[in-house]
Amino acid sequence: MTITLSASDNDELWEQSWQNTHRLYQSDDFDDIFDYPKQLGTGYRRLIWLQDGFWLRVREFECREFIRCDDYEEGWTASVLTFFICGDAGVVIHKTNDYFHEISGQNCFGFGSAMETEEWPAKQRIFRVQICMEPSFLKSYGSDQLDSLPLQLKNLIEGNKQEDFILLGTTTPAMQLAIRQILTCPYRGWIKQRYLESKALELLVLHLEQTVKREQGLNLVTTLKSTDIDHIYNAKEILLRHWDNPPSLLDLAKQAGINHNKLKRGFREIFGTTVFGYLHDYRMEKARQLLCEGKLSVATVANIVGYANTGHFAVAFKRKYSISPSACRSGEKPVV
């Protein structure tokens, strides 16, 4: 079943949720948390106001059904840096009819004034951390530094006409650390606000550094043909269908119809990790879901996700989520 929402329907559901739940969770007057609309699924949205024209948006949710919803905010001038932490989804950009994949392990810096249609899969955890910023905020750091930035950002900051754009990047370990520090911030009040502001700026700098290096010809990856991309997505689907008994890399490449070296190189380019790194993350996410339900023992979950040794599973799980499997099963929230 597919649930289709117009932009006004979507806005109305979120407005109702904000009115009903945000004061239940509010710990600081600049940090608003409210539930994902119960008609659609479970989860939350969090808005953290850092300074004028600069704020964080965190979304973690799971839809009951496949959801296709329009998204459009008239007069929107902010650009958004999004880190795709968990769950793959898609966006259709109406002006160009392009389809953009939101893939865990990647990030994108984008600006869009056109209508978009977001597609959220059913029963899949979606986790996004976003940094939103108005051109006035970026310009406050000095127009004399613009020459090093991509042309799209220069136009946006200087107020020149700018078409919609998306600048893709891979989420590096340094970025992952900053995201983790945002999500586990130990402070309250103005110290918390300044701390989160510094971490958001750190993420912005890391992304821009990556983008500038790529534009200067440093740290470039091979451009994939569209047919190669199709084969790599096919390989991902095969891998996830058989996650409990995956094929070897050579067999996976053969089934997907692509050379195994190109599969390895392309998989890292698209998904930001190796083939079996992606599989490992999927298994850990499956384990997290089962443990959060609290119905199965740790040993049973370990066996389901392919670990014969419960101790080895516990080490891998704690490395991924910073808590033990038993703590997760008891209700403690994992750190992504």
Describe the structure.
This protein is α+β, with helices and mostly antiparallel strands and 336 residues long. The protein folds into two domains: 2-215, Sandwich (Jelly Rolls), CATH 2.60.120; 226-329, Arc Repressor Mutant, subunit A. It has helices spanning 7-25, 135-139, 151-158, 173-183, 189-215, 226-241, 249-256, 260-271, 275-293, 298-304, 310-321, 325-329, and strands at 2-5, 31-35, 41-51, 54-63, 66-71, 79-86, 89-93, 98-102, 106-111, 116-120, 125-133, 165-170. The strands form two sheets. The protein has a seven-stranded antiparallel β-sheet. It is globular. It starts with a strand and ends in a 7-residue tail after the last helix.
Task: Give a nutshell description of this structure.
This protein is of the alpha+beta class. The protein is built from 12 helices and 12 strands.
